[in-house]
Design a protein that fits this description.
The chain is an alpha/beta fold. The protein contains 17 helices and 20 strands.
């Protein structure tokens, strides 16, 4: 942890007061830096962030991003939710100011080895389960990154003998590798304080679970998105380990191209030389030619093929971090999943209600639909990320009894449904609502005993909620308020 005297007089600008921006502003202000925080939202919409920073010597510029803020700045920290074409961020790069993030600062200062996990889907479940497997082995484990609370404020409690497991989004990876800013030299006192560095960084154990189209509203192309995901592997050394999905063509290519000498795989379709795979109904871990049975598929509490893949990935990662097979098996067979991922909220009048708010891509909605044998009443919508919906539409015509659309993407999804070749022989009925509340009310009217109602939006929550968790929590409240009789 940097001493306060090392940061005294250091000018820091924090762009964006979401989770990471709030954490890094607090951390640096407590250590004597001169912190200015700016957000395009007004103070009236930043109550939680401002409350968390109350009493600290921080200057706020809210509701705007004036470029004059850069005039007296040594380093700029940006939240991952701030788009790269934000004018203030563009000006930061043009001025060659050092640019960093909470995640980058934490990974440079963390004394414990880090297991980093990225991918287009399955990150949250795999990260949480990997942490649970390592924790079950008796080793103190910290789980964070793109899930939970930022870990920067926990630095003082993390020991070198602990393990940190981090979910890393593509937005976080953009600022995690390579040179900070474009300047030729950085002030020595900032480097000594741990705020700046030149070297790129990759986790000791790094996983790319899968790559499918995602965040194409933010990344300029699929190739650019893949390149960002690959950054998690780009600076691994001879003592590091890469874990990749064998079943995905893009991650398989990354694994075959990486310079890391220790590559392990996971697959639900094929046996792999090193890693974990599904053989008949047995989840198997193969290391150095030795096979160990983790458990049978029927022993898992998680639903769906995608979750079998997540368990295999987590098992490979936990084993690479030193967890024994018994701890891996114990965690795999007792883990019930993360919040807002295929979460059974309630059974009411013989109808089961599931919360899958974390499904923010059509691919995740497809995985949710395939997790159930029965037809469902599906609630989908939110904000589109410029992703293809055709496959989801085709499956919906076969698996969905009623499709209730809500939010900004409702009209787009309806068009995809109607133009799908499957529409000529499917039995799905389409409905449109303005809000999630209206969608739940309609589902309650349509559902009969034995039905399953599934919130699996396929879009982000940002048209109506700050994040998927807030949307999922609202769904829970709406479902729990339904009358039983």
């Amino acid at each position: 942890m940097a001493a306060s005297s090392e940061l005294a007089g250091v000018g820091v600008l924090v762009i964006g007061l979401a989770r990471e921006g709030t954490a890094v502003a607090r951390y640096l202000a407590q250590r004597g830096a001169s912190v200015v925080a700016t957000d395009l939202k007004p103070a009236s919409e930043l109550g939680a962030a401002l409350a968390a920073l109350a009493g600290l010597p921080i200057t706020y510029v809210l509701g705007e991003h004036p470029q004059q803020l850069l005039d007296a700045v040594d380093v700029v920290f940006v939240s991952p939710g701030v788009p790269s074409d934000n004018p203030l961020l563009v000006a930061t790069r043009q001025r060659a100011l050092p640019l960093s993030s909470e995640t980058r600062l934490f990974t440079r200062l963390c004394p414990a080895p880090i297991v980093g996990i990225t991918g287009s889907s399955g990150k949250t479940t795999t990260t949480a389960l990997t942490g649970e497997m390592i924790r079950t082995s008796g080793r103190r484990t910290w789980v964070g990154g793109n899930i939970g609370k930022p870990l920067l404020m926990e630095l003082g409690r993390i020991a070198a003998t602990d393990v940190v497991v981090m979910e890393l989004s593509s937005f976080q990876l953009e600022l995690l590798s390579g040179t900070l800013g474009h300047g030729e030299s950085y002030p020595a006192h900032l480097a000594r304080a741990g705020l700046l560095d030149r070297a790129g960084w990759s986790p000791h154990i790094a996983a790319v679970l899968n790559i499918t189209p995602n965040h194409l509203d933010r990344h300029p192309s699929m190739d650019a998105y893949i390149a960002v995901k690959a950054l998690i592997l780009s600076h691994q050394g001879v003592d590091d380990t890469s874990v990749l999905g064998w079943d995905n063509p893009w991650t398989r290519r990354l694994g075959l191209e990486t310079k890391c000498p220790h590559v392990q795989w996971f697959s639900i379709f094929e046996e792999v030389e090193e890693g974990a795979f599904l053989s008949q109904d047995r989840l198997t871990l193969r290391l150095s030619g030795h096979d160990q049975i983790i458990c049978r598929r029927g022993d898992l509490r998680l639903l769906g093929d995608h979750n079998v893949a997540n368990v295999l990935a987590a098992s490979t990662l936990a084993a690479a971090a030193g967890a024994p097979i018994q701890a891996i098996a114990d965690a795999a067979t007792t883990f019930r999943g993360v919040e807002h991922r295929l979460e059974l909220v309630r059974e009411c009048k013989g109808v089961r209600w599931y919360n899958d708010s974390i499904a923010t891509t059509p691919e995740r909605t497809i995985a949710a639909l395939r997790a159930f044998d029965a037809q469902v009443i599906l609630l989908a919508g939110g904000r589109d990320k410029h992703l293809p919906w055709a496959d989801m539409a085709a499956l919906a015509w076969a698996r969905v009894k009623h499709l209730i659309l809500f939010g900004e993407a409702a009209a787009l999804i309806e068009r995809e449904m109607l133009r799908s070749p499957s529409s000529s022989h499917g039995a799905c009925r389409l409905h449109r609502c303005q809000s999630l509340e209206q969608a739940v009310d309609l589902a309650a009217t349509l559902a009969m005993a034995g039905d399953l109602v599934l919130l699996s939006p396929g879009g982000t929550s940002f048209d109506a909620y700050p994040d998927f968790a807030a949307r999922g929590e609202h769904f829970r409240q709406l479902v729990k308020s339904l009358e039983q009789a």
